[in-house]
């Protein structure tokens, strides 16, 4: 016989012996074994005497008597029998086809193939739209009293085991806050489901325990799984040993085990402030095991639900793709290890995605020392660390939201720096035209590659432009004469039908970022950055001046053939040739004024002297009936 104590009751396991009247008469000395259990306790002097009764029963059992095991409970008169509670739980907790209520251990039919086959983020086919009504309902249910009543309320709109699990998951993720202070404590009593319900705070043990308890009340088999995790405080490439740092759950649905983590589904902890923020994460509900293993390593390899299972060393070395990596439609990344090394001062990272996605990166917290180009289904990043040693490389993706989220993190080790590759600090991301620039109204670029080499310091770039789109370009270098006021003066923009041409002259040898901005003409607001080119010139003799300064009346379809230099020689007759539309007269004004004439090809031609002046202006008269001239171009004259 065994005693089992509870707060309000004591239960006694014993063996009930049944035999014939003849045998009972023969064993008359033991007739008290058939007495009322309560009376037995009184006669035997309380619990100590029960042990004597058990020994006598065992002796009879040795005499080939047949018996039945039973349990007797002693409890206060006003308390509900514990057996009744257990019996009702057993009825709710439906077992397998054989009637077993104890959750079975995972087996071969639970295992999923590794690596991930890209079929789904989930371990079973799901249409999340089917949960919209249930999710709304479950998230708004309030805990009025006990856990049983809460589960009963949650299951009002749930009609299958899957929906029951979903309702419980949604409620926990929207109501239970991660308690950073409690997470540091060793007293697990603080994480009992009843205490969690009262405080609505807990740690990962509490989340898992509460989820298991609620599932069992709902009649769904559920297990708590302890293990290691790549969660809060994880450092890329770290090893794991000692006590497990996390706990999650496995639920049994449709004849198979599935994995959930309600702790990570509920929100996140800010690494700088250590404060928790509710931020629902769908990824950790019935996650595909081949993805779950990236940041969850269970104590029992069977709970990986993988074939073949992964070793702890593989778990430590494998690349950690954050949940947002998959939430935002990423499929794979290369390299596949979290610690990477440069080759000749450079490393390359590529990502494959389901759909066009915007990316950005940070090296040691700055958006520098890299070339990130967008592809229709992913991106390519080339990184050139400025110093030897260990660097932190983070990659972010935008997806369908307006916020960039961290999706990958590498530890980058560099043992050689290529001093010939020094990228401009203003070289922002992305580089080169892509699906994004096409989406923003720029099409069919003459230079599809982001890198443009020029031997004489000049280049011409042609871009198709959709109707109603204005384009602005600026040139940026790390040193030299380029300032914020002159960064657009080394570019001259020409319009030809539905294309624009950007004529670029570099002030000296080096590397420059040519930034491209767009804006819809009819909409208010500023120009939006779209992409940039990297212009490279190794010719140290290059020393091009700026283009002439243009004013607001310089029309979109105007064309300047000469002079292209914004600085004119002194005491010279300088020829002018322009194509201007809708203009009645054109004058060039220095110390004197010279008119230009319109030739048969539609160009205004003429010349002017730069003698005795410091500046030269091109002026136009739009209406022949008026006498008001507008300035459209301005040149400077070299000092004598």
Automatic annotation (TrEMBL):
InterPro entries in the cross-refs: CAP/Cytokinesis_protein (IPR052557), Ig-like_KY (IPR056564), Papain-like_cys_pep_sf (IPR038765), Transglutaminase-like (IPR002931)
Molecular function in Gene Ontology: peptidase activity
Ranges for the region named Disordered are 94-116
Any one of the GO CC terms: cytoskeleton
**Subcellular locations according to the entry:** Cytoplasm, Cytoskeleton; Cytoplasm, Myofibril, Sarcomere, Z line
Which GO BP terms, alphabetically? muscle organ development; neuromuscular junction development; proteolysis
Superkingdom per UniProt:
Eukaryota
Check the record and name the SMART domains matching this protein: TGc
Gene3D superfamilies linked to this entry? 3.10.620.30
Establish whether keyword Electron transport is in the entry: no
Q: Which Pfam families match?
A: Ig-like_KY, Transglut_core
Q: Which PANTHER family match?
A: CYTOKINESIS PROTEIN 3 (PTHR46333), KYPHOSCOLIOSIS PEPTIDASE (PTHR46333:SF3)
Q: What is this protein called?
A: Kyphoscoliosis peptidase
Q: Which organism is it from?
A: Microcebus murinus (Gray mouse lemur)
The gene from which this protein is expressed is: KY
